[in-house]
Amino acid sequence: MDANFVPGQPIDQERQALFDDKSFFMDPIVVAEAAENNGITDYNPTDYESPSKAINISADDIGVIFQKLARQTQKVKEEQKAKEEQKVKEREHEQGKKKRKRNVKPRYVEHSVVHFQSSDGTYVFNGHGMAHVLGLVLGFMAFNGMLSNSPLVFFTDGARCIHDEIEKMFSFTKFKIVLNRI
User: Fold this and answer.
1) Looking at the structure, do residues 50 and 136 belong to the same domain, yes or no?
2) Which pLDDT tens digit goes with each residue over 141-162?
3) How much is the pLDDT for 70?
4) Can you give the pLDDT at residue 12?
């Protein structure tokens, strides 16, 4: 399914009918008062789901540089660096070439994090891969009877892979994606 991610709209027009039930949204008068008090002029009252009825889910993939299992002391690091520099100088002298920079890329550890918030509580799911973590979220929701009548609001960045996984996993129920723009 080709998704058109427009802020304030469900993931596609077919799903719009699922959000037409006005009981899922905050009272427009309350939204207007809050917007006025905070100096917000550009808003749509239907962008604000009722916290007691909606389930908010923030999803993101995280990549961090892999750390070594054992850290070296500063003295050992300096000794190793000196030995490496000496080896490089010897090689350069033998080859008669200019010094080349080492092209060492750091290794990354990738994992996915989902922050789940409903009127029943707040939970964090963490695992390897968005499909796996969203599967955990779906199982949690099914086990706790949360799939029947609550619209899901996903907050994520523009990563197409995250949007695709959400579409695959939750296409059977009410949801929309709010795009995090920087």
Assistant:
1) yes
2) 999 988 877 788 899 987 888 9
3) 66
4) 52
Please report whether residue 1 resides in a domain: no
Contact residues for 66 (Cβ-Cβ < 8 A; gap 6+): 106, 107, 108, 109
Residue in 34, 26, 18 with CA at minimum distance from that of residue 52: 26
The one-letter code for the residue type at 63 is G
Residue 46 has what DSSP assignment?
G
Q: Based on the domain organization, do 118 and 173 belong to the same domain?
A: yes
Q: Do 78 and 144 sit in the same domain of this protein?
A: no
pLDDT per position as a tens digit, 79-101 = 888 888 888 877 776 766 555 55
pTM of the model: 0.62
Domain that holds residue 75: 68-95
What is the residue whose two structure tokens read 């750091």? 106
Helices (H), strands (E): how many in the chain? 4, 5
> CA 176, CA 179: separation in Å to the nearest integer?
10
